[in-house]
């Protein structure tokens, strides 16, 4: 199996991305990773890999792409001028079937726009959505989407998100009948924006006519995300992005405060022994994008976005996520779901 | 000074609200609280107050309002049929100048709609906004608005939120030049919904023409809310509601997890001694609406919404917030800000 890796665009530079790639290669002996970026720089980074990572060096194959897309590059600029960038080369490798999936820690807006052009969309879906699983109570997790690829989403796009999220939960977590909810400001039918109320109507009609796709549970509120009672929560990308980033910011502040509070009450050594391991694990668990990446859904291929500020471990987990999606052939599952439900949805809308 | 209290509508019933009111009365010897609700029930609750709360019983004045608005009542129903409810009686008491401010733990949508009708809006503002201060790094706090009174907010309404939030930070926290930001999916000018980009343009124009109102800092992302670098962050009510409720849910899950993690590593007794006080304080600090209530801004009077599931302490803090707003005459400050900036804003829009 071969994956395509964009080594540029992460805040930590190619070093972290190549180390994360090497870690994945060490763990999966059948895996080969094509690394797109400035060839000399990649070769230099590979040659500096410590053991045991260096053992996988022969399965990290540099592929020259002289340019890169920066965090401030606009999607429009990337579409016009990105031809020789590592991100476009990586996506083309997926589009041409040379790689089973692609992973990038670069600019999200550019990645969404370029992936849409290079890979194309599954029939019936107009734009990619971004999703990740957030941790919930009772060891459960909840796929939240969209996380920022779509703003001002009309009702039919929210319905698309529901179908894609349900396919994701079925595929990756093996949830037979995912419980899907629509994020709103309250549980009452009279509340919410026009597009959310219309999406609720479409999803209710869809749920009443189709069989076996998912279990539509109506509205959820922001606090319900972490309760473990839904497998998928659907919202416009502006809302999902704000919620996810606020959650990351809050987790980081909370963990810092708990740490300070313990350090002020315990001796430094005792605090380190007792509190730090607990807090470190929690932080990791509760910052899903930084640690596990996010999936671009709706494309005719698999693309995983690793967090921009990711370190080697985060990039390694993003590769793991890409491998899971390859194993379950997620795009085919989503396309199948679309064909099966197309007539119901057309009937409903 | 007299405040008007709606004793109905909280999840914990009138008991918690009357106990919270009594606590405020004990603390402020010049304060009288008119309690609106079923008279016999109020009298019975007052007679059961323990010491030292019972000492303030004479300053808790029952005022009969036989009906109440339930959490599931729609705003439309409340406007049509709410005349004899405790919420409407409380608001009329504020509108008629009998009380300096009103506090309710009831249905938010009904409270917003009824307050708008009974108190009227400050000239130039079309709808109330809901705001609370969320805790941020370095002991700072950040006013977030709107929290759910307005969905699908057009650009000019987001500008209204900025002015009201700035007045709030100046008034309550004494921040001379509040740093105001607009929530978006990214810091780049090309990102975001049409209304957010238009509001950014209006706020930039406003900032360049007006003097001394606030310091407009451009876009913020969800994670910036807790960093302490902004005094006010403005967003549509759908987004603010989702972010705030998700933050509440996450805090509660996080605190639970930290607690479990410590209990599994320490003996129960040691965990109780070390971890519980720290976590309890954190939970309180990080759940601002439950503990401090939220303000309805833009009205010609002061109305504070206490959290529906509040206990006596939470209601007590909501009363404290109302008293602060009375002390600084917040509606007059907002109205003054509007008059001062009206010409600039008209010029900008």
TrEMBL record, chains A, B:
Keywords, alphabetical = Acyltransferase, Cytoplasm, Lipid biosynthesis, Lipid metabolism, Phospholipid biosynthesis, Phospholipid metabolism, Transferase
Q: Name one GO molecular function term.
A: phosphate:acyl-[acyl carrier protein] acyltransferase activity
**According to its UniProt record, where is this protein located?**
Cytoplasm
Entry's EC annotation: 2.3.1.274
Signal peptide residues on this chain, from the entry's feature table: none
Q: In which pathway does it act?
A: Lipid metabolism; phospholipid metabolism
| Reactions the enzyme catalyzes | a fatty acyl-[ACP] + phosphate = an acyl phosphate + holo-[ACP]
What role does this protein play?
Answer: Catalyzes the reversible formation of acyl-phosphate (acyl-PO(4)) from acyl-[acyl-carrier-protein] (acyl-ACP). This enzyme utilizes acyl-ACP as fatty acyl donor, but not acyl-CoA.
Protein family per UniProt: Belongs to the PlsX family.
Q: Quote the subunit structure annotation.
A: Homodimer. Probably interacts with PlsY.
Protein name per its UniProtKB record: Phosphate acyltransferase
Which organism is this protein's natural source? Answer: Vreelandella neptunia
Q: What is the lineage of its organism?
A: Bacteria, Pseudomonadati, Pseudomonadota, Gammaproteobacteria, Oceanospirillales
* Gene name for this UniProt entry: plsX
């Amino acid at each position: 199996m071969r994956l395509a890796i964009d080594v540029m665009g992460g805040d930590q530079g190619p070093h972290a991305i190549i180390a994360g790639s090497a870690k994945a290669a060490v763990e999966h002996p059948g895996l080969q990773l094509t690394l797109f970026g400035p060839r000399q720089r990649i070769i230099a980074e590979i040659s500096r890999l410590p053991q045991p990572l260096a053992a996988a060096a022969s399965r990290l194959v540099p592929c020259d792409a002289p340019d890169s897309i920066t965090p401030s590059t606009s999607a429009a600029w990337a579409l016009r001028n990105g031809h020789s960038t590592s991100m476009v080369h990586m996506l083309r490798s997926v589009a041409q079937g040379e790689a089973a999936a692609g992973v990038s820690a670069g600019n999200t807006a550019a990645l969404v726009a370029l992936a849409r052009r290079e890979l194309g969309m599954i029939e019936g879906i107009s734009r990619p959505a971004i999703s990740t699983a957030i941790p919930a109570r009772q060891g459960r997790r909840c796929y939240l989407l969209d996380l920022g690829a779509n703003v001002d989403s009309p009702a039919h796009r929210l319905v698309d998100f529901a179908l894609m999220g349900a396919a994701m939960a079925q595929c990756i977590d093996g949830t037979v009948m995912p419980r899907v909810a629509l994020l709103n400001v309250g549980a009452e039918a009279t509340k919410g924006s026009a597009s959310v109320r219309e999406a609720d109507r479409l999803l209710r009609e869809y749920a009443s006519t189709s069989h076996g796709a998912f279990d539509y549970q109506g509205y959820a509120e922001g606090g319900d995300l972490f309760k473990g009672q839904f497998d998928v929560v659907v919202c416009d990308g502006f809302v999902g992005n704000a919620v996810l980033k606020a959650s990351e910011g809050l987790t980081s502040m909370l963990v810092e405060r708990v740490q300070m509070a313990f350090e002020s009450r315990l001796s430094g050594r005792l605090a380190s022994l007792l509190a730090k391991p607990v807090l470190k694990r929690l932080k990791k668990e509760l910052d899903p994008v930084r640690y596990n990446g996010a999936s671009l859904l709706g494309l005719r291929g698999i693309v995983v976005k690793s967090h921009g500020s990711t370190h080697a471990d985060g990039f390694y987990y993003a590769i793991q996520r890409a491998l899971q999606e390859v194993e379950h052939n997620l795009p085919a599952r989503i396309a199948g779901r679309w064909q099966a439900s197309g007539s119901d949805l057309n009937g409903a809308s």
